[in-house]
Amino acid sequence: MAVHPxxxxxxxxxxxxxxxxxxxxxxxxxxxxxxxxxxxxxCLTENxxxxxxxxxxxxxxxxxxxxxVQEAHDY
Length: 75
Description:
Layout: H1 17-74
């Protein structure tokens, strides 16, 4: 009984297999970047709002302080 080697078949890939994989990877990367951009914009907006609130509190504090200084000066 003779054993004949079975020829291995080459993987059945499309002609543009590499390009398809690359395009898929680029699309996933773009979606991920868009998600990160949305999160970054949200954080920046929240921090800007917090900064405006802090600035408002600071100005209020300075105004109250100046008023007390003026009252002490007038006393």
